[in-house]
Amino acid sequence: MKSRRQAYGKVATELSLKSDRALRALLERATPTASGIGGRTSRVRLAETTVLVKEIRLTDKERLARIGGPPDDDELGARASGRTSR
User: Fold this and answer.
1) Are 44 and 30 in contact (CB under 8 A)?
2) Distance CA 39, CA 29 (A)
3) How many CA atoms lie less than 13 Å away from 46 in the CB half-sphere?
4) Where does the pLDDT of residue 84 fall: very low under 50, low under 70, confident under 90, or very high at 90 and above?
5) Which H or E element spans position 53?
6) Which of 2, 77, 84, 85 could form an S-S bond across to 6 if both were Cys, CB 3.0 to 4.6 Å?
7) Does the pLDDT at position 68 exceed 80?
């Protein structure tokens, strides 16, 4: 059984190597688990580890800073937690 630190390191490395397009594709294949006021949650398999993904909308300020233009209502931000499933 691999340690949590090893799993975290592998997941972090794999995420950092993915392009925006590859991250979006990964999220589109994610298995939805819940949806609520705070956003949607899903699970993905990455680096031989199940990872919880929390999708949240970017603020207008974040969208403007990222793309340098007016916000797009369809553009979502996503943050993958460093926590892994048991």
Assistant:
1) yes
2) 17
3) 33
4) very low
5) strand 49-56
6) 2
7) no
pTM: 0.60
Residue 40 and residue 32 in contact, taking contact as beta carbons nearer than 8 Å: yes
Which token pair is 17? 């190597």
- Sorted by where each begins, the domain ranges of the chain are 4-84
The model's pLDDT over 15-53, given as tens digits with 9 standing for 90+, comes to: 999 998 999 999 999 999 998 887 889 999 999 999 999
Q: Which two tokens stand for residue 58?
A: 């970017």
DSSP state of 76: -
Count of CA atoms in the C-beta half-sphere (13 A) of 75: 15
**Phi and psi for 72 in degrees, rounded to 5?**
-110, 120
Confidence of residue 77 (pLDDT cuts 50, 70, 90): very low
Task: For residues 9 and 59, give the distance between their C-alpha atoms in angstroms, rounded to a whole number.
Answer: 29
Structure letter (DSSP) for residue 74: T
